[in-house]
Design brief:
The complex is a heterotrimer of chains A (284), B (368) and C (431).
Chain A: H1 10-35, H2 37-40, H3 52-55, H4 65-72, H5 74-105, H6 113-125, H7 128-141, H8 148-171, H9 177-184, H10 189-218, H11 221-226, H12 234-244, H13 248-278
Chain B: H1 2-23, E1 29-34, H2 38-55, E2 59-64, H3 70-80, E3 87-91, H4 92-100, H5 109-112, H6 122-125, E4 136-148, H7 161-164, E5 174-177, H8 183-190, H9 198-202, H10 205-219, E6 222-225, H11 230-236, E7 242-246, H12 247-256, E8 261-276, H13 284-293, H14 296-302, E9 309-310, E10 344-345, H15 348-367
Parallel strand pairs in B: 1-2, 1-3, 5-6, 5-7, 8-10
Antiparallel strand pairs in B: 3-8, 4-7, 4-8, 4-9
Chain C: H1 2-6, H2 31-71, H3 76-81, H4 83-89, H5 100-116, H6 119-129, H7 133-143, H8 151-158, H9 165-173, H10 181-186, E1 189-191, E2 197-199, H11 207-238, H12 241-256, H13 259-270, H14 275-283, H15 298-322, H16 327-334, H17 339-367, H18 371-376, H19 384-393, H20 398-422
Helix pairs in contact in C: 2-20, 4-5, 5-7, 6-7, 11-12, 11-15, 11-17, 12-15, 13-15, 15-17, 16-17, 17-20, 19-20
The chains are: A mainly alpha (284), B alpha/beta (368), C mainly alpha (431).
Chain lengths: 284, 368, 431
């Protein structure tokens, strides 16, 4: 790595190493808070720090008791069910609506394109507390608060901007001649969509769907305002847990959520590479 | 892609089925009762709901833990014209507000509620001054100070509200609730105002200023709590040496979890909690439930599970032992004579009038 | 991106600028007409595809926002309940006490309100303006049945407040269908007795301070993100892609990790008995009694939010830096520029688009943050969002919550417009 141009002096060379050190420190700042939770969730004691037993790698210092707590608690199990119902339903809705809209927005003749795009992206920009308060007023007046439908609709609205953005990005440079070729060969619009367009934009659709999923799965403010006690999700349980008294069970939940994030991240990374390969763009 | 489509369809169908399963429960008559959750709802389930459902097998009671936002919820539901809650557990103050807004039902107490076993009509049996037009009292609960006895030498522990404000005499930080109610009253008591005159003094600008300047003295040593679960934790972690808290929670930590806590009953701020019926929900079923659940025996039974005092005078002698530990509950009631020497009854009317201004002033004071 | 689109011919409209001689298609329609028709069909198709989402967003998102904005000025409960008094007060000049006719109108309004049980909301609403008005209204509504005209004497007998001009001036001011009192309250102002707008007494001033604190903390967080994000983005953009992709995961993992997970990990890291304090005690930097309070205060909010928002700064910076050719720097160096000068005068200006994009994005997200300050901010780390939540859920002053929310929303919208102008919403990238 340390290849220096001839005009670079000693000062510059030592700066080079200092710079690497600074970057390492920043990466540490980014990642430590996430990684530190994982070993702590196996703490045998109800503390949030490393016990001497843990530091000496004594097996007695570690246990699965907080995971056991989690899996035997009907409250947490119920929240898992709710989180998945809401996240999956809103992901499907958001992906369908968002993909259609992105197809429209990417057409050359889309009228008022920027204005419509700004409106469609706005749920991502408006602070959640405002969306939450606004949806509380409105959804209670149509009696949707405290229902799955209400939360799912709200989360769909939050998720669509991500789908619109990722699918639009995939459609940049989309070769519409393929569509015309399919049509001139007698394909119906449906066939054209499922056999020609969808396979090509699939990476964008799937990564948009992943974004929509994680947005709903991680969301708590809207749930706080719109959901009833029948729709308590994992983040909501975590929120009330942390507010009252942070318990080690929360660290166990956190560790499992981190694993989910890693899976999603890896999936997304693989999609990105596939997308670049298809479009002939070399990565990097 | 066909595969993808199939998976999606299956998912949609699955979700739809789950949603349907979640909503299709109305086979029998249901009663949605909103309460505070946790140990409190548990005590109501044991003392009221389970016996009621045993007598009426066709009724199913659904608990919602939404009382913390009870007033907001009733307002929204009544405004939408679709009320889903049948009965709501609420504090006296919000109940007065809700009643004036016409979003809860007025109650004819003597007609609706059971008389005491000796025939005393309901209006004379409930704790004096606790009945309101739309409100049926259930329990008396207190907010009061407790201390960690491990942090004080024997014989040198705090015993009055004045001691709480005496930072030199009694070391350690103070846990205080992050709302003006309670803190203003206690500040005045600590400053020498007689217990009965607290609200007369607070009615003047000078009185409020006096309370805040007394609070100034402890501000730097205060740890502010917002959730009922925090005070026992703060005391146990020795983050504070004394803290205000709800007597039920403190009892639980002290007796059930064996924490070294002692309660300071001096200046306990007591409040009444009870039932309200959202507009249009005073059905025969709700009336029947209320008649049962607020009778003398049921209110006395609730004290087996949580240390809140029954709101009926006739229930007091029937309070027995704690279900879990078997200890006698009588001495742990806020209304027990030895605990009830110097109480302050929270003036719901005064707080309804001045609550908004005091909260603004309190928040501005905190932010300073 | 825009260029690419412009060169893409849409189906059916390959030729533009029809020649002057009227060309026709095979079935005899003029080519011009045919093209126009095809264009219109294309437009309709494009719009039709977007329409479902547009409708969905309008109903599930925009309408709620509009309704909230409306709530911030809505005063109909008072206007409707006191409609007779409001009409009668129209002709009152605000001097002395109003005439018997006004008192009679008030008596009628109170009677009806007591009957319909609608007095509560009016009482609560007027109490926001003047503590004590609640019991004046409620008490009077309760007693009015038992009284007889003349109403002036009757009302003053019920409550002395009816004998004071200020009570009537307040009602005259606050009985319109629309009120701006919530907005005044949200900027620490109020109406004086004579109707002029004055600052709240000092002990009631809080929101302006909070708006400033929110803005200031957000600027600080944005600056911290820039300082920490710039070196990382530079490193990622200049490493061979094999290494860069690996390090990128370190940036993306926090991005994909639940907000609540990251917030709870900061509590674990920073609290008194937490990892960082333990570490410092162990090293010997601080004594066991001298543990530093780093969470449940402003430091907690600052540290946690910087880490949470850092990826939003790194990603746009990275995508801009990726497009900067290294040859400019080399040229500058070979022309004899000192490395610092070359970096500052040649490289940095080329990254400004990324700095702007990342900066505005982080700032927009920061000023609306609620969860993290609520959990790690203690009292001194609370932001304006926390007070919106407080008025929504605790004090139930929804009008005030809506007006604070609308002010915040307006600020965010201005920034969104700037972002749109600067970066272009269609250039927004994720991941």
């Amino acid at each position: 790595m340390a290849k220096f141009a001839p005009y670079q002096g000693t000062l510059e060379r030592s700066w080079h190493y200092a710079y690497r050190l600074i970057c390492a420190a920043i990466f540490l700042f980014l990642i430590t808070p996430i990684l530190i939770i994982i070993p702590l969730s196996f703490n045998a004691q109800p503390y949030f720090t490393f016990t001497p037993d843990m530091l000496s790698f004594n097996a007695d210092g570690y246990s699965l008791r907080w995971y056991q707590d989690f899996f035997t608690s009907s409250t947490w199990m119920n929240s898992i069910k709710n989180s998945f119902i809401i996240a999956i339903a809103s992901t499907i809705l958001a992906t369908t609506l968002g993909t259609l809209a992105a197809l429209g927005l990417s057409r050359a003749h889309m009228p008022a394109r920027l204005l419509i795009m700004s409106i469609l992206i706005s749920p991502m920009i408006v602070p959640l507390i405002i969306s939450g308060a606004a949806m509380f007023f409105f959804y209670s007046s149509v009696n949707l608060t405290g229902t799955y439908t209400g939360v799912i609709l709200a989360h769909t609205a939050l998720g669509t901007p991500f789908v619109v953005i990722t699918v639009t990005a995939t459609l940049v440079g989309f070769d519409y001649r393929l569509v015309r070729a399919a049509q001139s060969l007698g394909a119906t619009p449906q066939t054209t969509f499922f056999k020609v367009i969808l396979p090509l934009i699939a990476p964008g659709v799937i990564s948009g769907a992943l974004f929509a999923f994680i947005t709903s799965f991680d969301e708590v403010v809207i749930v706080l305002f719109v959901a009833g006690s029948g729709q308590r999700t994992i983040p909501l349980e975590m929120w009330s847990g942390i507010r009252e008294q942070i318990s080690p069970t929360i660290l166990a939940v956190a560790t499992m959520l981190i694993s989910i994030s890693i899976v999603l991240l890896v999936t997304l990374e693989m999609l990105r590479r596939r997308n670049e390969r298809i479009r002939g763009v070399t990565p990097g | 892609m066909k595969q993808w489509l199939k998976t999606t369809t299956a998912l949609v169908a699955g979700v739809a089925a789950m949603g349907a399963a979640a909503t299709s429960v109305q086979a029998q008559e249901t009663l949605t009762i909103v309460s505070w959750g946790g140990a409190y709802t548990e005590s109501q389930v044991k003392a009221y709901h389970e016996p009621y459902m045993a007598n009426n097998p066709d009724v199913r009671i659904i608990n919602e833990d939404r009382s913390a936002n009870g007033l907001a919820g009733i307002r929204a539901q009544v405004a939408a014209g679709n009320v889903t809650w049948d009965l709501v557990d609420m504090l006296e103050g919000p109940a007065i507000t809700a009643c004036a807004e016409g979003i809860i039902e007025p109650i004819n107490h003597d007609e609706l509620l059971a008389s005491a076993p000796d025939g005393t009509p309901a209006t004379e049996d409930f704790v004096e001054g606790s009945l309101h037009e739309c409100f049926i009292p259930q329990i008396v609960y207190a907010t009061l100070f407790a201390y960690n006895s491990d942090m004080f030498d024997d014989g040198a522990h705090p015993s009055t509200i004045a001691d709480v404000f005496d930072l030199d005499g009694f070391a350690g930080r103070r846990g205080m609730q992050q709302i003006p109610a309670g803190n203003l009253e206690w500040a005045l008591v600590a400053d020498g105002v007689p217990y009965d005159d607290v609200y007369d003094v607070l009615d003047t600008q000078e009185g409020v200023a006096r309370a805040f300047s007394k609070l100034d003295e402890v501000k730097d040593s205060a740890v502010w709590w917002t959730e009922g679960a925090q005070p026992p934790q703060l005391l146990a972690d020795r983050e504070v040496s004394m803290s205000s808290g709800y007597n039920g929670r403190l009892f639980n930590a002290q007796v059930v979890e064996n924490q070294p806590f002692e309660l300071i009953w001096d200046g306990q701020l007591f409040e009444i909690d009870g039932w309200v019926v959202p507009a249009g929900k005073l059905t025969d079923r709700v009336k029947d439930y209320l008649h049962f659940a607020t009778d003398t025996q049921r209110l006395a039974d609730q004290a087996k599970y949580i240390s809140y005092g029954p709101a009926r005078n006739s229930s007091a002698p029937m309070v027995s032992t704690h279900e879990e530990t078997g200890i006698d509950m009588q001495p742990h009631m806020p209304t027990a004579p030895e605990n009830f020497q110097t109480p302050i009854q929270k003036d719901a009317e005064w707080w309804a009038n001045n609550g908004d201004e005091m909260s603004e002033r309190f928040n501005a004071w905190l932010a300073r | 991106m825009a260029q690419a689109e412009a060169t893409l011919p849409a189906s059916g409209s390959a030729s533009t600028g029809a020649p002057s001689t009227a060309l026709t298609t095979a079935d005899g329609t003029p080519l011009k007409v045919s093209i126009r028709r095809a264009m219109r069909r294309n437009k309709l198709l494009a719009f039709g595809l977007t329409l479902p989402l547009l409708l969905f967003i309008t109903f599930s998102f925009l309408m709620p926002i509009f309704e909230m904005t409306f709530n911030s000025v809505d005063n109909r409960p008072v206007a409707n309940t006191l409609h007779r008094s409001a009409a009668a007060l129209q002709s009152w000049d605000g001097q002395g006490l109003p005439s018997e006719a006004v008192y009679a109108a008030m008596a009628e309004d109170l009677k009806q309100a007591a009957e319909e049980r609608s007095i509560g909301r009016v009482a609560t609403r007027l109490n926001y303006q003047e503590s004590g008005m609640r019991s004046v209204m409620m008490g009077s509504a309760r007693m009015i049945e038992r009284h007889e005209p003349p109403w002036k004497e009757a009302l003053i007998d019920i409550n002395a407040a009816w004998g004071e001009g200020s009570t009537w001036r307040l009602i005259k001011r606050e009985s319109g269908a629309i009120t701006f009192s919530y907005y005044l309250n949200a900027v620490d102002m109020t109406y004086a007795d004579d109707g002029s707008i004055v600052a709240q007494p000092e002990w009631r001033q809080i929101y302006v301070k909070l708006f400033w604190r929110t803005a200031w903390m957000s600027i600080l967080i944005t600056a911290l993100c820039l300082v920490l994000g710039f070196p990382i983005a530079y490193l990622l953009a200049n490493l061979p892609s094999r290494h860069a992709n690996l390090l990128m995961i370190l940036v993306l993992l926090p991005f994909w990790t639940s907000l609540l997970v990251r917030t709870s990990s900061w509590i674990v890291m920073l609290q008194n008995e937490g990892v960082l304090n333990d570490l410092m005690v162990w090293i010997g930097v601080i004594s066991d009694d001298g543990r530093i309070q780093m969470v449940y205060n402003r430091i907690g909010t600052l540290v946690a939010m910087t880490q949470i928002l850092l990826p939003f700064m790194i990603l746009p910076l990275y995508s801009v830096m990726k497009g900067i050719s290294p040859s400019y720097m080399r040229a500058a160096r070979s022309l004899g520029a000192n490395p610092l000068v070359a970096f500052w005068r040649v490289y940095v200006p080329q990254t400004l688009a990324g700095v702007g994009a990342g900066g505005i994005l982080v700032f927009i997200l920061a000023i609306g943050y609620y969860i993290t300050p609520a959990l790690v901010g203690g009292q001194s780390g609370q932001l304006i969002s926390n007070y919106i939540a407080y008025h929504m859920q605790q004090s139930l002053n929804w009008g005030l919550a809506a007006s604070i929310g609308t002010i915040l929303l307006a600020g965010v919208m201005v920034l969104y417009l700037i972002y749109n102008r600067l970066v272009g919403i269609d250039k927004m990238k994720l991941g």
